[in-house]
Amino acid sequence: MDGDITQHGNDAADKEVARLWRTWRTVHEMLADRGYEVSDDELTISLEKFRRDYADPLGFPEEPLANIYLFYSRARMKIVARPTELMKIKYTALPSKSNPDPQPDCGTIYVDFCADASGVGTKQVRAFNHTVDENNYHTGIFITQGNVSPSALRLLASIPGHICEHFQEQDLLVNITRHELVPKHVLLSPEEKAKLLERYRLKESQLPRMQITDPVAHYLGLRRGQVVKIIRRSETAGRYASYRWVI
């Protein structure tokens, strides 16, 4: 009987570690797709290496000291990444009279996995916000195992000069942009956007629209006013592009 219990525990541990590993890899893919510096080792980390780095002796992802068997927590799974030069270009406004030397509106991003399995509220978000603010991270991503209260979500968006986002782990088990039915989305730089509008003699408001709440927009961290190029496959034309204005 003890053997059955042990085997059941091992099966549960294997499933939980594999689940968290998939989320971990998707997060790194998301950062790379947004334009942050991510190494190949981080993108291709194996399940076994992840298990060695982030699982306790029983095989479960390490949580707070709820019992004597657990020594670490998801707090060890912090990620900090810097923007690439290409990303800086895409997030730098065109020069103007009022701003002749615009600076990139992007910077270091911080990702935190919340260890609390349930009941995530303002207490946990305040701690996350404090880390983002204290370290002057431009952007923060708070990843939880379950839902976050509405008041906590409002608090997450309340740090002046910083962008904070929320994802649930289950939303990152699969990278939606890798699905065959999801076309490739490419963010245009302000210069590319201006050339597009000039070429077709359009105002940005005349472009088809994309809600900022769209799952792909959320994944890419798009902002209102940006334009994305959407590349689709066609049996007759090979590939064709369309454009969306993020609102």
From TrEMBL:
Would you say which domain of life the source belongs to?
A: Eukaryota
The places in or outside the cell where this protein is found are: Nucleus
Looking up InterPro entries in the UniProt record yields: Arch_Rpo5/euc_Rpb5, RNA_pol_Rpb5_N, RNA_pol_Rpb5_N_sf, RNA_pol_subH/Rpb5_C, RNA_pol_subH/Rpb5_CS, RPB5-like_sf
Q: Which GO terms describe its biological process?
A: transcription by RNA polymerase II; transcription elongation by RNA polymerase I; tRNA transcription by RNA polymerase III
Transmembrane domains' residue ranges: none
Keyword DNA repair present in the record's keywords: the answer is no
Q: Which GO terms describe its cellular component?
A: RNA polymerase I complex; RNA polymerase II, core complex; RNA polymerase III complex
Q: Where is the RNA polymerase subunit H/Rpb5 C-terminal domain?
A: 174-246
Q: Which UniProt keywords apply?
A: DNA-directed RNA polymerase, Nucleus, Transcription
GO molecular function, a single term: DNA binding
> Where is each RNA polymerase Rpb5 N-terminal domain found?
14-131
Q: Pfam families per the record?
A: RNA_pol_Rpb5_C, RNA_pol_Rpb5_N
Where it mainly occurs, coarsely classed, is nucleus
**Homology family:** Belongs to the archaeal Rpo5/eukaryotic RPB5 RNA polymerase subunit family.
Kindly provide the name given to this protein in its UniProt entry.
DNA-directed RNA polymerases I, II, and III subunit RPABC1
Biological classification of the source: Eukaryota, Fungi, Dikarya, Ascomycota, Pezizomycotina
